[in-house]
Design goal:
Blueprint (H helix, E strand, L loop, with lengths): L22 E3 L2 E3 L2 H4 L3 E4 L4 H7 L2 E3 L2 H11 L9 E4 L2 E4 H9 L9 H9 L2
Antiparallel strand pairs: 1-2, 3-4, 3-5, 5-6
Helix pairs in contact: 3-4
Length: 120
């Protein structure tokens, strides 16, 4: 059910988050336009350890970080990718869901849009 809290024992990465900003819905993540405009740090690497070791790349907006990660970064670097928005840390699957969301405020590359939607 939309807006319903995660079931007890479910593996939500967003436990304790304000439902007004982030919401886990059966493998879907939603953000408000304000969140897409928030500053963000992007960690890229072939796994979580290497992404952390390489350190963050700062972006003026989360939307720009998502665009860079999906459209410009090497696909292998998305395996360990993490996007930090404020104190929230999002994994690759969440990043793809946000990029594919109808709320994503930037134009997408057509070739990437087709590749991302078929790579699930």
């Amino acid at each position: 059910m939309p807006g319903a809290p995660a079931a007890p024992g479910s593996a939500s990465r967003f436990q304790g988050d304000s439902p007004a900003r982030f919401e886990a819905k059966t493998k879907k993540t939603t953000m408000t336009n304000q969140d897409y405009l928030a500053r963000a740090e992007l960690y890229l690497g072939s796994d979580r350890k290497s992404a952390t070791a390489h350190g963050p790349r700062g972006f003026r907006t989360a939307a720009n970080a998502l665009r860079f990660a999906i459209e410009e970064a090497a696909p292998v670097s998305l395996r360990g990718a993490r996007l930090k928005i404020g104190d929230k840390l999002l994994a690759r699957a969440d990043m793809l869901a946000l990029y594919n969301s109808r709320r994503y405020p930037l134009a997408r590359k057509t070739s990437v849009k087709n590749a991302v939607s078929t790579s699930r």
